[in-house]
Amino acid sequence: MVFNEKYEGKTSISGYYSAISHSYDELHGKEQFEKLKVIGKHVRPEKDDLILDVGCGTCFSRDFFNCNFKGVEPSKDMVLRHSKGKFLVGKDVFISGVEGLRGLFEENLFDYVICVTAAHHFMDVRRAFIDMRDLGKKGCVFGFSLLKGSGNYDECVSAINDFFVVIDEEDVQRDKVFICRKK
Ligand SMILES: C[S@@+](CC[C@H](N)C(=O)[O-])C[C@H]1O[C@@H](n2cnc3c(N)ncnc32)[C@H](O)[C@@H]1O
């Protein structure tokens, strides 16, 4: 994702996403949907399963997977774009980055953990992947979609290989999707 003139005057990543939130689905919805379809080949929750989406944006994945859903997202405006956004905030979706995961959820809680085109914003990549790993139950399936051109792409791939077993990989437009389990 390229920062553009709409970012003027905004000083944070969440500020950037808040500024573009009104047009996010229109601009990026199709592309993100393709990534979810690839993730969905392995992430196939039953209705009662619990999924976590880290950097869930406009909560696109909540409707896609249609199971028990929790998300974290630093930009409240992004969450509010969802038709049920105001009911989700503070209940199913927490206004936080990956950095807040440990304080929000107990370990070994989730059946599935996904993170779609958000890891390029992580400051401490290894910590972030460790924290996401620890929240997954034994047998949890993880779906990570990484922006291939991002500055921390290699660091993300190295963290994934260190902390997970990769069971599938697939290029989807500007991203590469990694499907993993805990090591
Ligand atoms: C390209 S958007 C992807 C949103 C959503 N995952 C999707 O597929 O539509 C990147 C998202 O990462 C979020 N983000 C930025 N910094 C983050 C952080 N430190 N932890 C978690 N999410 C972050 C942004 O607010 C933004 O919603």
Walk me through what this model shows.
- The structure is a single chain.
- The chain is an alpha/beta fold and 183 residues long.
- It has a single domain, classed as 3-Layer(aba) Sandwich (Rossmann fold), CATH 3.40.50.
- The chain is 37% helix and 26% strand.
- It is built from seven helices and seven strands.
- Strands 3-2-1-4-5-7-6 form a seven-stranded mixed sheet, sandwiched between helices.
- The chain starts with 12 loop residues before the first helix and ends with a strand.
- The N terminus is likely disordered.
- Bound molecules: S-adenosylmethionine (SAM).
- The site of S-adenosylmethionine has 22 residues, from helix 1.
List keywords for this structure.
183 residues; alpha/beta; Rossmann fold; seven-stranded mixed β-sheet; 37% helix; binds S-adenosylmethionine
Short description:
This protein is of the alpha/beta class. It is 37% helix and 26% strand.
Set out the fold topology:
Elements: H1 13-39, E1 50-54, H2 60-65, E2 68-72, H3 76-80, H4 85-88, E3 93-94, H5 101-104, E4 110-116, H6 125-135, E5 136-147, H7 153-163, E6 164-172, E7 175-182
Parallel strand pairs: 1-2, 1-4, 2-3, 4-5
Antiparallel strand pairs: 5-7, 6-7
S-adenosylmethionine binds at residues 1, 13-14, 17, 32, 54-57, 60, 73-75, 78, 97-99, 116-118, 121-122.
